[in-house]
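Cross-posting from the modeling subforum.

Setting up a comparison between two proteins and wanted a second pair of eyes on the formatting. Protein 1 (sequence, then structure tokens):
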Amino acid sequence: MIRKISDRAKPGSISLGLGEPDLPTPEVIVREAVRVIQEEKNGYTLQAGLPALRERIIGDYPHMNLNPEQVIVTAGSQESLYLILRTLVEEGDEVLMPDPGFIAYPMITRMVGGREVRYRLPARKDFSFDIDDFKSKISKRTKVVICISPSNPTGRALSREELQAMAEAVTASGSNTFIVSDEIYRELYYTPERPASISEFYPRTVIVSGLSKSMRMTGWRIGWLAGDEAVIKAALVLHGYVVTCASSISQKAALAAWTHEAAAAREEYRAIFHRRRDHLLGLLRDQLGLRCVTPEGAFYTMVDVSQYGDEMKVAEAGLEQGVVTIPAAAFGDESRGYLRISFCADEERLSEGVRRLGAALKTIEAH
């Protein structure tokens, strides 16, 4: 649905749709990539990735006491998701995932023969975590629980208390399940502290993450999988047959993502998106009178357009006015009546995009 909407955009449209940072990759990484291309031989790396890169990844999770055999560098976090679900899920196994949640979760689950079960993030509570609903959905048949914080599509981040409650509920269920923690947006947050990881509360956690969002490296395809050694070794066999190894040039350039210069770029990036978030929310609320969720992370807000009818109709009207938005029902039943709006655009384009959305809403009112 997301691609279908985006592909139908008219020339000159403003996209408030796809989730891809519009800012350039930090210069320190670009410089290193150029140097690597010009000065080094760039053949295959080890299947699991450069040892130096795996060591840097390990350093991000000191509480997990990882060793290099517990990390795979992947072709983006999406490959990591595929690898871990293919490795852990057998025919008929239940995978408990958020509603709303990233569209790849149910699709990959079906691809590997699993059965999706959804725990609700209630729209009426601004898509916050509902521990009672979560407890009602987990069972001894649950093989994997997917946790994403901050979330695509809602931008909400789970608090330490919510993560601990989730971990305790999984433990109490007796399912011996693995939690797959999707942390691709963890470095993009608007709270005083970086959001916690459920791996701090639950030992059987497998981390899925990468540099696509935090370092604006979507096309470089650098992600990782980290966790239980036996599971990671099994996933490594599959990874070797799927891609052999992640791009050697991207891996070598990615080493610069742990430098002081890259850290400064990340701080600047967060500040820019924080300003954009506040600018967009102000426009949507003050100019259009729409209810929208205040995200703690990522670069999305969920906007309630249910008073105008079906969210697809609103998105279609937006296309006619030259603005791309995403009908949030694509992410689950809980988000029907909402649009997911991205702030991967500067303030001027956000202002014009909201103006066009307002014009679209007026055409619906006129009917």
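Protein 2 (same layout):
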Amino acid sequence: MSFWENPTYAEFWLEIARGDLATWIQLTPYVYAVFEGIHLVGAAFFFGSIFLLDLRLLGFAPQLLARPAGRFLLRIAGPAFVLLALSGTLLFVPSADRYAASPVFLLKLGAIAAGGLNALAFHVSAWRRVDAWSSRAHPPWTVRGAAVVSVVVWVSVIALGRGMGYESRQLPPADLEAFPAFD
């Protein structure tokens, strides 16, 4: 039995999915849809700003100085990431039991962590020397490499997020009792 199949782990997430917050999100008209809309707006601002910065770091739009472009775009990406994290958490709650056992969801979390680590590594290394390469048409290979990793990772996060909606899942045994046709 793996950690993910541990009954205590599963019970914890089932309690979250059946809690008051989950019930409110599921039963209050339009609440889930509003959270989805907020999540999509956050995704547009976060991924859009990060992708534009990555394009500049890859050497596109060399007329833009990397430092001011980066400062502007990261001021958008930061609050957008907070919006994504909050709305994503609220979207997770009603299906916590299913998502916590979902390989696609766990891969998405791993990809988000990889994106964060890539950004952290970039900002503590190459970004500290941005004045030396900000006006270059082609930044150093380390900068371009970080930008490629960023694009791949964040596109993966988007694809995995969409994949979660199409992942086949089995209903928990307690839910099957309410629907005898599914036995």
